[in-house]
C-alpha cells in the first residue's frame, strides 16, 4: 500500500555546488510498505519507472546517499522511482539471520515491479542496481527462482557483483581487516558468531551458499529471456567485461562506461562523495530510452495539508508495529516502533530516541538500531529511530559531503526535537541513545531540552567536541586507548604493522601525556568543586553537571579498550573512581564490546545494558568489580567494570 508524504525538496542554502547541481524541484514523495519491505516512492509524471536495488550490508549503508541522489535526479526528470530495502535489511521486516533471505530478496524485486505497474501505472521499467543489488536485479529480470521472468526493459548495473564467490571473499577480507584492529577479547568473541558477520551485518549459511553459487555469466547464457538493453558502469577491477561479453552473445544492447569515481564512492559517508559523472551517465541513458517524452519535466507541488506527518499504513511485525513518521517542524524522517498493545491516543511507558551513528541511516551500523528498537518493543518500550539533517532520508536533498554532519550542533538539535516530539505524543519518560557520534548527539540533546530524562551513551568518543577540530584529523589519529597501547607493546604483530605502515606516534604520545596530566588536574577540579567552583557548560564536567542539576540519568557504556575511556580519565579521573559518587551516572566497561558494536556478543551485551537502564528485564547480569585497578584485575585487563550509583 502507498501512503502520501509530500515533501518540498530544495537544497539548503549551504549546499555545495554539486548538491545544487542535482537539486530536485518539488515532487510527491511517499513512504511505502509492500509485503515485508519498506521503501520510498518518488512519484513522477510519466509512465516510465525505475526500481533501485541497493547493495548488501555495509555497502548499502555507505551508498544510501547515492541511491537517494539517483532517485532525486530521476524524479526531477519526471520518472517514477521506487527505492526500498530487501526483507531482513534496513527498516524492512525480518532478522538478518532469517533463513530464505536470498530468495526473499529476489522476490521483493518482483513485488516492487508489480507495485509500480499495478499502482503507479508504469509501463516502461528499468532496474538500477549497485554491487549485489545489480546481481539481484539480474536474477529477478532473468526469472531465476520460482517466479517467471517479468518484463523488464533495461537494467543499469553500477560496479556489479558478477560472481558471488568472489564477492564473499571481498566481504571476508573487509571484515578481517577490521578484526585485526580489535582487542584479543573481541577476536575471541567473534569465533562464536552464529553466522558470517561483516561489519555487524549477518549473513546466514543458506544465504551464503546461495550467493556463492551465482555466476551472472552463466545466468545470462541460460536465461529464457533478458532485458533488451543494459548499461554497465564498471570500475577498472571486477568481472564486468566478462558479463558484457555474455550479454552481447545473447543479443542484448550493451552500453559501457568507466566508473572512475568508484574509489571515492564505496567508503563510509564521512569520506565518500557522490559520483556525479556516473549519476549523469545513468540518468541520461535512462531518459534517452523514453521516446516522445519532453526532457526537463518539473513536477508541481502537491502538498497535502491534511496529512499529519505519520504514515497511514504501519508495518505489522506481529508483536509490534513500525511506521515511517515526519518528526518536528523540519520533518525529520524517523521510524516509530511501538509495542503491539500501545495505542497512539494513549502511549504508555518510556520512549527512546535512537540517534544515527556517524552518517549511517537510521537502521544503524550492522542494523543495530533496528535490533535495539525491536527488542525494546517486545519489552514494552516505544522507540523512534531518527535521521538527523543530512543523514539517511532527512534534509532537503542527499548531501555530497556529509563530514560536517557528525558532531554538529544541528545533530543534537535534531535529537532534541525528536525527544520533544515523543513527549508531545504523551510519553511521560523519554531517553536518548546512540553509539559514538550518536552518543554525543544524545548527550548534548539532553542539555538542550527538558524532554529528555535519560541518556544511554555507547562508546562516547568525547564529551565536548573542541572548536576547530575536524573529523578528518581525528580519523587520521589513533584508534585505541592508552591502556590498549600498553597491552599492544607485547604484541609483535602490532610492532610489524607500526613499522610497515610508518604510523605517526605523536597522537599516542599526546594521549599518554594527557592521561598523566589528568592525574593532577582532575583531583584539583574535584577539590575546587567542593568549595563552590562550577565548571563551564562548554566543558565535559560542565555538561555532566548540567544534566545532574536537571536530574537526568546517564548510562555510559564502553568497550574495555575503547579510545573514549581516555576522555573519561582526562576529565573525571580513573575509571574505577569516575562518577562513583554520582547519583546520576553509571559507567560500564565491557571487554567484548567493540567500538561500533559489530559483534553479536557485544550487541547482546549492549542491548541488555539498555534494558537495565530503562528498568526492563535483562537476560544478563552485569558483573561489578569493586576495584578494577587491583593487581588481579590489572593482570586480566578485560574484566567487566560497573561504577556509579544506580
Automatic annotation (TrEMBL):
Protein origin, superkingdom: Bacteria
Entry keyword Hydrolase: yes
Keywords associated with the record: Hydrolase
Gene3D superfamilies membership: alpha/beta hydrolase
Domain Serine aminopeptidase S33 residue range list: 65-193
Gene Ontology MF: a single term: hydrolase activity
PANTHER family given in the database record: ALPHA_BETA-HYDROLASES SUPERFAMILY PROTEIN, RE40534P-RELATED
Protein name: Alpha/beta hydrolase
Organism of origin: Burkholderia diffusa
Amino acid at each position: 500500500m502507498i501512503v502520501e508524504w509530500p515533501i518540498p525538496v530544495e537544497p539548503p542554502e549551504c549546499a555545495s555546488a554539486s548538491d545544487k547541481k542535482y537539486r530536485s524541484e518539488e515532487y510527491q514523495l511517499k513512504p511505502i510498505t509492500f509485503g515485508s519491505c519498506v521503501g520510498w516512492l518518488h512519484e513522477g509524471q510519466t509512465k516510465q519507472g525505475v526500481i533501485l536495488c541497493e547493495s548488501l550490508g555495509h555497502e548499502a549503508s555507505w551508498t544510501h546517499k547515492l541511491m537517494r541522489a539517483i532517485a532525486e535526479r530521476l524524479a526531477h526528470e519526471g520518472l517514477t522511482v521506487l527505492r526500498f530495502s530487501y526483507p531482513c535489511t534496513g527498516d524492512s521486516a525480518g532478522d538478518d539471520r532469517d533463513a530464505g533471505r536470498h530468495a526473499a530478496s529476489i522476490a521483493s524485486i518482483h513485488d516492487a515491479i508489480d507495485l509500480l505497474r499495478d499502482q503507479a501505472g508504469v509501463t516502461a521499467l528499468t532496474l538500477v542496481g549497485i554491487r549485489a543489488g545489480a546481481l539481484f536485479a539480474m536474477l529477478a529480470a532473468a526469472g531465476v527462482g520460482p517466479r517467471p521472468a517479468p518484463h523488464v526493459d533495461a537494467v543499469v548495473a553500477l560496479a556489479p557483483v558478477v560472481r558471488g564467490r568472489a564477492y564473499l571473499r571481498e566481504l571476508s577480507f573487509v571484515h578481517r581487516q577490521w578484526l585485526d584492529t580489535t582487542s584479543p577479547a573481541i577476536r575471541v568473541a567473534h569465533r562464536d558468531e552464529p553466522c558470517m558477520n561483516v561489519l555487524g551485518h549477518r549473513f546466514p549459511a543458506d544465504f551464503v551458499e546461495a550467493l556463492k553459487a551465482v555466476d551472472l555469466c552463466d545466468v545470462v547464457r541460460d536465461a529464457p529471456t533478458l532485458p533488451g538493453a543494459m548499461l554497465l558502469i564498471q570500475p577498472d577491477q571486477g568481472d564486468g567485461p566478462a558479463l558484457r561479453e555474455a550479454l552481447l552473445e545473447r543479443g542484448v544492447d550493451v552500453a559501457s562506461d568507466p566508473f572512475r569515481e568508484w574509489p571515492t564512492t564505496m567508503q563510509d559517508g564521512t569520506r565518500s562523495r557522490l559520483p556525479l559523472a556516473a549519476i549523469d551517465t545513468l540518468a541520461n541513458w535512462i531518459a534517452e530510452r523514453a521516446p516522445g517524452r519532453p526532457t526537463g519535466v518539473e513536477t508541481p507541488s502537491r502538498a497535502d495539508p491534511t496529512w499529519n506527518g505519520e504514515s497511514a499504513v504501519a508495518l505489522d511485525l506481529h508483536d509490534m508495529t513500525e511506521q515511517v513518521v515526519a518528526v518536528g517542524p523540519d520533518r525529520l524522517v524517523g521510524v516509530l516502533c511501538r509495542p503491539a498493545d500501545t495505542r497512539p491516543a494513549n502511549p504508555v511507558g518510556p520512549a527512546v530516541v535512537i540517534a544515527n551513528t556517524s552518517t549511517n541511516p537510521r537502521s544503524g551500523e550492522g542494523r543495530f538500531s533496528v535490533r535495539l528498537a525491536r527488542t525494546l518493543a517486545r519489552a514494552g518500550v516505544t522507540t523512534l529511530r531518527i535521521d538527523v539533517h543530512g543523514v539517511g532520508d532527512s534534509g532537503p536533498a542527499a548531501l555530497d559531503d556529509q563530514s560536517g554532519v557528525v558532531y554538529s550542533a544541528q545533530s543534537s538539535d535534531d535529537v532534541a526535537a525528536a525527544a520533544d516530539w515523543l513527549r508531545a505524543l504523551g510519553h511521560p519518560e523519554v531517553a536518548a541513545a546512540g553509539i559514538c557520534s550518536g552518543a554525543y548527539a544524545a548527550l548534548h540533546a539532553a542539555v538542550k531540552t527538558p524532554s529528555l530524562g535519560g541518556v544511554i551513551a555507547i562508546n562516547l568518543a568525547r564529551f565536548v567536541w573542541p572548536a576547530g577540530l575536524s573529523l578528518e584529523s581525528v580519523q587520521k589519529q589513533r584508534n585505541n586507548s592508552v591502556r590498549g597501547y600498553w597491552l599492544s607493546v607485547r604484541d609483535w604483530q602490532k610492532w610489524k604493522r607500526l613499522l610497515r605502515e610508518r604510523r605517526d606516534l605523536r597522537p599516542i604520545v599526546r594521549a599518554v601525556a594527557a592521561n598523566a596530566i589528568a592525574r593532577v588536574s582532575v583531583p584539583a577540579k574535584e577539590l575546587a568543586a567542593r568549595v563552590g567552583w562550577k565548571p563551564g557548560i562548554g566543558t565535559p564536567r560542565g555538561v555532566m553537571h548540567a544534566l545532574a542539576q536537571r536530574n537526568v540519568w546517564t548510562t555510559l557504556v564502553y568497550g574495555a579498550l575503547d579510545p573514549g575511556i581516555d576522555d573519561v580519565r582526562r576529565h573525571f579521573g580513573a575509571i574505577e573512581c569516575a562518577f562513583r559518587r554520582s547519583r546520576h551516572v553509571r559507567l560500564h566497561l565491557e571487554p567484548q564490546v567493540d567500538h561500533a558494536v559489530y559483534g553479536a556478543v557485544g550487541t547482546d551485551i549492549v542491548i541488555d545494558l539498555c534494558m537495565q537502564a530503562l528498568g526492563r528485564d535483562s537476560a544478563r547480569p552485569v558483573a561489578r568489580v569493586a576495584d578494577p585497578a587491583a593487581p588481579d584485575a590489572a593482570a586480566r585487563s578485560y574484566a567487566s567494570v560497573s561504577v556509579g550509583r544506580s
